């Protein structure tokens, strides 16, 4: 289930966001929250677009552009 943009308010959580795609779903990992946040389905091909949409919601709801995004990925296979 997706969280509303208000969930990204910097007063409610860390500005350090980590996203992971596990079992076909996009997850936000934020140590200041009780657990991972499910942002809905995502595919390998759509991961960047889906994560960027989450970032856009965070930016729109935040009073600051100070935040970190990190991607951990396997090397592209030839």
Helix content: 10-25%
Work out the number of β strands. 4
Tell me about the biggest sheet? 4 strands, mixed
The helix/strand series, from N terminus to C terminus, equals EEEHE
Distance between the termini: 35 Å
Given the helix and strand composition, which structural class is it?
A: alpha+beta
Strand order of the largest sheet: 3-2-1-4
Q: What's the shape? A: globular
Descriptive report:
Helix content is 19%, strand content 26%. The protein is of the alpha+beta class. It has one domain (5-63). It has a four-stranded mixed β-sheet, covered by helices on one side. The longest helix is centred in the last third of the chain and has 15 residues, at 47-61. The protein is globular, with a radius of gyration of 13 Å. The chain starts with 15 loop residues before the first strand and ends in an 8-residue tail after the last strand.
